[in-house]
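User: For a teaching handout, I'd like to show students what a predicted protein-ligand complex looks like in token form. I'll give you the sequence and the SMILES for 2-acetamido-2-deoxy-beta-D-glucopyranose. Please answer with just the structure.
Assistant: Understood, here is the input followed by the structure.
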Amino acid sequence: MQISNLLISSTLAVLASASLPVINTTGNAFWNTETGERFYIRGVDYQPGGSSNLTDPLADESICSRDIPYFQELGINTIRVYTVDNSLDHSACMNALDDAGIYLLLDVNTPDSSISRTDPECSYNSAYLQSVFATIDAFAEYDNVLGFFAGNENINNENTTNSATYVKATVRDMKKYLSARDYRQIPVGYSAADITSNRYLAAQYFNCGNDSDARIDMFGVNDYSWCGSSSFTQSGYSQKVENYKGYSIPIFLSEYGCNTAEVDGSRLFQEVKTIYSTKMTGVFSGGLAYEYSQETNDYGLVEISSNGTSVTILDDFTNLKSELNSTSNPSGNGGAVSTYSYSECPTYEAGIWEADNTLPDMPSAASAYFTSGAGEPLGTSDSTELQCDSSDDDDDDETTSSTSASSSTSASASTLTSSVTSSTSSTATASSRASSSSKALGVTNFRVPIILELLFSIFENSFVFGFSIVILTVGVVLVI
Ligand SMILES: *[C@@H]1O[C@H](CO)[C@@H](O)[C@H](O)[C@H]1NC(C)=O
Ligand SMILES: *[C@@H]1O[C@H](CO)[C@@H](O)[C@H](O)[C@H]1NC(C)=O
Ligand SMILES: *[C@@H]1O[C@H](CO)[C@@H](O)[C@H](O)[C@H]1NC(C)=O
Ligand SMILES: *[C@@H]1O[C@H](CO)[C@@H](O)[C@H](O)[C@H]1NC(C)=O
Ligand SMILES: *[C@@H]1O[C@H](CO)[C@@H](O)[C@H](O)[C@H]1NC(C)=O
Ligand SMILES: *[C@@H]1O[C@H](CO)[C@@H](O)[C@H](O)[C@H]1NC(C)=O
């Protein structure tokens, strides 16, 4: 009796934690694969601590369980997290989010492990891919992962467009890794800064070419153009809908919420009614308000006490909640289109668009991960940006390249509007300075996990071989 009660209750527990339906992309929209309904992102960007106190909010149940009730009160269905520590366990928070009906958009980079704006070629190396793939390993099993961002605002002005080549190569490698490891084909995207001179070129570039692995599956735009009491036309949204029309994959606002025209010290969030209206939904699939917690850049919806235990709702929270609650999604498919084809590749033009339509091959050392997984996750302290692969770069002056990387990384940070955003590449400044000295000492890129993984991969596929080695060893010991 007791045993069967136990069985029943554990069966119920399994049923109770049944996961959210997977969301896929078809044409230029997201879809709920169980109900067949269109899915609109109603989200909030979430990185409490910001860039000054980078914490993984999904690895600490006391943090995520403190905040999830507020997500529910806002009525959101998605959060975006900019940096996680892939060496930690995320199951408690991922399951709690799932129970609350919330999906995750996850950036796979960390401040010290991302594609650098100043030396993108060097930063695209096998150690970097190990970090990215280990993050995929840590999250791919969760059905409520809506998508991965391979990069965030790598292009942040007119003259960082060549970094797109290496971000696109990372997109390709991530998509190939998902297939090679038999994971769900989770959408992989790029989140773009709103740069007047190249916003449409970037959108085209990431969705162009006949290699479907190299094309992104979704495009996020960080857009702060609707300020205060504005309108569809005054904000420039109307022009963007016009210009992005015909784009074949989902686009959404990966950050919105301009704070330069507040009314009585708070944001009105009146853009919400427009974002979820049919004026927009034929092209856009919703968005995420920037950002949950109040940090020094003053974009918070709530204030978190310095001891981390209490959350105070700000007027921005109340306004966003009320706008979301009084705005339904359009009925039917909202104008989604599935017949557009991918974009034409933009042509190279010095000073305007300098990304290459021929992508670099994946660093050869990274192919081991395809057969045996990424191996040991090394967490946020793993610093890969300056680890050029020697096989790809025959004559690299480590000292020179690291000095220039640090100085221009901090220069580009000052041009950014939002600071968590910049954290992905720009908090790197301090730590890349610190790490450059150790890199200069040892160029040898010795990574134990790869060697262990290679050994495992030898034995993994050949149980019989492993077994006979055991027999042999026992035999030898007995003989001795
Ligand atoms: C995505 O899900 C929708 C709804 O279930 C389905 O109609 C569509 O075929 C799916 N697309 C892909 C690419 O699996
Ligand atoms: C950083 O965040 C952690 C976790 O929320 C918190 O315990 C710590 O006090 C914070 N540190 C600072 C300097 O705010
Ligand atoms: C890059 O562009 C910015 C303007 O967006 C300019 O201030 C800066 O000097 C340029 N840097 C280089 C190296 O050309
Ligand atoms: C894809 O495009 C490249 C470059 O334009 C070309 O060399 C290749 O043949 C094309 N492949 C297919 C399958 O169309
Ligand atoms: C944490 O800070 C809040 C607000 O400052 C205070 O009300 C609460 O008592 C503090 N909790 C602890 C455990 O110190
Ligand atoms: C608004 O809030 C009510 C009460 O919580 C809820 O039933 C309703 O679904 C919400 N509407 C929208 C559009 O979120």
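For the handout, you might add this sentence: The pocket of 2-acetamido-2-deoxy-beta-D-glucopyranose (ligand 4) is lined by residues 210 (CB under 6 Å).
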